[in-house]
Amino acid sequence: TYGKIMNHQNALSFPDDVDMSKDAKDLICSFLTDRKVRLGRTGVDEIKRHPFFRNDQWTFDNIRDTVAPVVPELHSDIDTSNFDDIEAEKGDAETFSPPKAFVGNQLPFIGFTYFKENQLLKGGGNSSSVEESNNSKENAKDKENCLDKKELQKNLQLLEEQLDHEMQAKDELEQKCRNATNRLDKLVKELDKEMNSRQKVEASLRQLERERALLQHQSAESLRKAEMESDRKRSLENELNVLRDQLEDLKKRNQQSQISNEEKMQLQRQLEETNAVLQAEKEAAARMKKCQAEAQKQAQSLEVSLGEVQDKYNQLENCKLEQEKQLRGLQAELEEERRNRSLGAETISDLQGSLSGLEKELKEMKSTLSKIQTEKKELQGKLNNLEKEKNNQEIDLTFKLKSLQQSLEQEEAEHKATKAKLADKNKVYQSIEEAKSEALKEMENTLQEERSSKLLVEEKLLQLQKAHSMLDCDYKRAAHKLEELKMQKKKSSEEVMQLTSRLEEEIHKLSLSQSELKMQKQQVSVLGSSEKLLKQEVNQLLEMKLSLEKQNQELRREKQEADGQLKELKDQLEAEQYFTTLYKTQTRELKDECDERNKLIKELQQQLAAYNEERDSLAAQLESSLTKADSEQLARSIAEEQYSLLEKEKIMKELEINDMMARHKQELNEKEATISSLEESNRTLTVDVANLASEKEELNNKLKELQQEFQKAREEARQMNSLKVSFERQLQSERTLKIQAVNKLAEVMNRRESVRGGARGIDTEVHRKEKENRKLQLELKAERQKFNSTMMKYQKDLTDMQAVMAEENNMRLELQMALDSKDSDIEQLRCQLTSLSVHSLDTTSIGSGNDVELGDGYPDSRLEGWISFPTKNTKRYGWDKKYVVVSSKKILFYNNEQDREQSNPFMTLDIDKLFHVRPVTQTDVYRADAREIPRIFQILYANEGESKRNEEVAVEPATHERPNYISHKGHEFILTLYHFPSNCDVCTRPLWNVFKPPPALECRRCHTKCHKDHMEKNKESIEPCWVSYDSSTAKELLLLTNSKEEQQRWISHLRKRIPRKNPTLSPPAAQSSPQEFASMFPPKVSPRSSPRNSPQLSSHRNAIKIQATKTQQTSGKSSTGPMLRIILH
Q1: How far is CA 1064 from CA 439, 501, 755, 913, in A?
Q2: Domain ranges, ordered by start, for the chain
Q3: Class at the top of the CATH hierarchy for domain 863-1128
């Protein structure tokens, strides 16, 4: 059948003579297929949904209550009549000739022998059979003890081998952890070295490029200054030539003045002509003035337009810089999106791999579960067979004992009756002894017949009892199987539900990652389109810049042309003014000469003075024009210098921008390389961490198996002890029965000897029995000593194994804490990498470097610093400074920075197990200094979320044998005094007094207050406590910061990290937790107590479960009071 099942593809066939439905055939075929397409691979629900199981008669909920349609007839548990007969092999089997020499192990075992009669009443022949039976029992017991010892030794050897394997695995884990830390340190050191060398080289390159640009600018400035000097020299030479020409003109005019007398007549003639010319010149001068004013206005408007153009140019430059910044930011975002896309693809592949791994694990778990079930069934069958044999043996032994006791009692009664009759007959009827003896013989025969009938009845009863015990065993076994099947069904259904939930979670994660990838693709496309638009805008701005530069150049040319025209107009104006003055003087002279020729000398002198004045005025005008030209030249030179400075700044900015672009590209390339290397190292580390986690799980499983084996060994030892006690009781009972039987036999034999003349054989037999008894007692003592020695040995081995397990647990805890610290370091490195990649543009300044401020480099999810811990076993608050690191998953506590560098924390807290974080008040820590209270805050957390080293655990106070509270009706009353107004919850008397308050009690759970007299006199008047919690499930921790601002920062950060839902607590996980820190302070009178709060550090803040009882409902109190107190505190 097994071969046909394995070859189901070819051997599966349905008989024609049996009618089967299509659903039944489909069900059989879907079960006998490959495991990839087999029915039920996704769970039991797939099998239940098959059409074969759909009917109107039953469902899977009521299947146990319905009658089966077909019940096969089975004659026994091993009935195989419903299967095909296995064909016998036709091959000739090899036979070996049996040895001719006699060997005892060839004899078959056919069963034990039983004796119906009481062998103790028969002579020496029966004693040998009793000895043989005793020896066989002792041998059986010795064999059982030897087998138990061998089994225990084998178990011990297996446990030692498992311990060696665990030690080797632990060493390998430690080695891997060390290798990982060394690799991390090397990578960090190499990265720092490369960054430092790269920064030095870049700084030197920047310095050289700046020096080169400065030298180029200086050479351009020197050339410009040389050109300006040459222009000045040329202008001065031109002015000197003009002055020489003017001097020659003056000399010529002097000569002309001398000739003027001769030309007087000619001048008179020309007077009229000059007057006409003068008027024309006046008109021309007025026109020239108008033109000059218009030219000045045009120059001013040109200057205004030039300033506007310069402002526009500056604005365009700023816009260009902003556009470049935005372009760089968009490039960085695009690179981030690409990285996120690659990371999403990697996560999808990882999720697919994890899905395949989960499917493989599910298949392996199913195969292992089927194997375990088969082994369990085999062991259960063996156990049932052993129980049946044990019950049979017990029934046989009890039947033997009862038959022996009944026969002994009957013999004693008959012996007494016969003895009395014989005595009477000896006294009265000595002559009738023969007749009496015959009557006695007949009576004995009748008694024997009755005994045989009684034995037959007892045998029938024994058989009935055996059948009854067999039926009980079968019933128990069936019930046990039924319970096991129920448990298996529950377990399998739970496992299937867990696996389906896992699979749904993985599918959900995969769908989320795919949707995120699609969103990222859309964002990448949007960013690409925005990048194209930005490039178009940049091109438009560049075109606008070029057009504005062209306009600026045209305006400069127009300005230069206007300056030249203005100079020409000024020269013409000066010449016209000169000619007008000359004409005026000539007309005056002609008039004077015509009017008064006698005063010619005076007129000439006046003319000379006028000439001098005119010369001075001309010189002044020349100086003013020169000063104007110099001022214009200075303004032009200043403008040119400013322009050169702007050009210099522009060159420097362009150089800096080019440097920054090159450096940014180089940094991006280097960062991408470092990120890829770090990602590879991160992958290797994650693989190592996963391997470590799997190895840790294997170690935990092995430790659980070892603990189970230890428990089994303990149970076996207990069973051995119980067997020992039961055997000792049986031995004592057998001894007493044996002693009583021997004594009675001795009495009977003594009486018979006294009647018949006595016989000495009974004394010898009694002595022999006593010797045997002593021998048996010595053997029993030896067996007890052996048993005690083996028990001591096993107990010693068990304690050693427990010590090794404790050490292994400590090592595992230390490794787990080191692993948590390494996880936080890896998280920090990842955050630094992400901050470097995101803020790469912000780390380098575009300008002089003063506008950019660097952050601290840490994300919001991480916080670290020095915080003080309360010292243990002190009445006053003392504080020890510790280094605390808050990561995204853990709170790590280090003794110093050296432990921080070595990743050696002394305590860790799971952030998922935090309940509440709050600042403390004066009533919470009234023994603390008032200046320290604003800096103290309290953390409430689940006890199972705490991991400590054994040193720290051992330091905690464990001396709580005498509780410092009074327990009554669920209350935990603390003795206190109230100096402020407070009311008693039991009576109407005042509970407070300013100077001498009465002794009062307050429950630290529900804060019920009452007088102490009520507890002493009238206990029943106090209502029961309506707050229920487990003090071992939660703990609190007080911490002291350096300042109030730092306390607020820690509280706000930890409150953000606290989960919204309270963490689930496993009750057995917190059973062995020590008492919290607040319980070590005894209750004393508070110097400033409050009626609302207890003066002691009450442990009610550890309350997690708050339930309202019937008394609370009747009294109308709200059940949210203590929870509100916890939150408001």
Answers
A1: 90, 19, 89, 8
A2: 2-53, 302-426+454-578, 863-1128
A3: mainly beta
